[in-house]
Design a protein that fits this description.
The chain is α+β, with helices and mostly antiparallel strands. It contains 2 helices and 5 strands; from the N terminus they run αββββαβ. It has one domain: Roll (SH3 type barrels). Helices cover 21% and strands 54% of the residues. It is globular.
């Protein structure tokens, strides 16, 4: 998968719910549900519990962040 395909997939799901699994390191993962809010050239923003978090497309490419769409 390429960054362009990842970006297009995220763009298609703006406003939809997504389950995010974030690899924090040392076999620790943080998992939460969020809504994709905005996309930019290098990052995308999700909203969870009225808090915004941003991730880069390269995080998805390197599997540091996993996105699971409904």
């Amino acid at each position: 998968m390429t960054i362009e395909k990842i970006k297009a997939n995220i763009n298609d799901n703006i406003g939809h719910k997504v389950r995010i699994v974030f690899n924090v390191g040392r076999n620790k993962k943080e998992e939460f549900e969020a809504t994709i809010k905005e996309i930019y050239n290098y990052i995308f923003i999700v909203e969870t519990n009225n808090e915004n978090k941003s991730f880069s497309y390269s995080d998805v490419l390197t599997e540091t962040v996993e996105l699971h769409f409904d």
